[in-house]
Amino acid sequence: MADHQFAFLTSTGFPGFLNAPPLAARSDAEFVVAGIAWDGSTTNRPGARFGPYQIRRASQMLCDGTHPLFDVTPSEVLADIGDLPLPNTSLAGMRESLAPIAASLVDRHHMVWLGGDHSITLPLLRAYRAKFGRPLGIVHFDAHCDTWTDHAGEPSGHGTWVYEAITEGLLDPALTVQIGIRSAGVREAREYVTGQGGLIFTGRALRGVSTVEQLAGVTNLIQQRFEAAGDVPVYLSLDIDCLDPAFAPGTGTPEPGGLSTGQVMTLLEQLHDLNWVGMDLCEVAPPYDHAELTSAAAATLIWTYLCGRLAARQ
Prior knowledge:
Elements: E1 31-36, H1 51-59, E2 78-83, H2 91-108, E3 110-115, H3 121-132, E4 136-141, H4 161-167, E5 171-181, H5 187-190, H6 192-195, E6 199-202, H7 212-229, E7 234-239, H8 261-270, E8 276-282, H9 293-312
Parallel strand pairs: 1-2, 1-3, 3-8, 4-5, 4-7, 5-6, 7-8
Helix pairs in contact: 1-9, 2-3, 3-4, 7-8, 8-9
């Protein structure tokens, strides 16, 4: 495989997420962070290729990494492989190069993938589908449904991956959950997931619903759905534009009327004991950020997920 190197890639010489060492120095790490600095499929503002760097940088402010709710830190079981050296001008080339790397990492570690735009999720789900030998469940935070059947005239991109993943059998439609959806879109796309038997909690439905007690109707329904399915592997895909632009202005396709950072944190905390097998966080575009609000939110949400994984087995 060609070793593609670009100036914007974060190397393992840069402090990793939560100051984690390079994977080469902690090869047995349970949790591994990897950056996929690709934004060639954005439909509005590019810049998400710089997301992994800024998310890592923001994570340095999480002190010793001990979570105030879970009272754990992933620092001793975490490594960071840096940004993967992938092609930068071809979506098909990027996905083809990513496939064997993702398969190898998924087989050995619990992965956190830093995007990059949301087109990276499709090849990652292919790797998880191969590992587990069955379709996955997914919890997908996003302003956009990502169920369009084409990408502005192209067959695939950051707005088609959910549709593609369901039609390819990578996801179990009944175990597909979307949270925060609110963007413009034809009804067929907006309601595709519910039409397939999944769940959608729209941004409108979640307005003013913020406390643990208020969100219990959402979290209980999600937990019940997955518990009824048995020991299903569950993937988390979190597009930072699920947050309102007031909380995350640094993204390529901002949509007013979104979730607060606190709402998403609460949801992740309350759902921490699902059978999570990995996650990605996409669409952080630092060129449009203000006061590093977006990268700070992204780092905190990833940290919450990691701490929740440790707390779930206590």
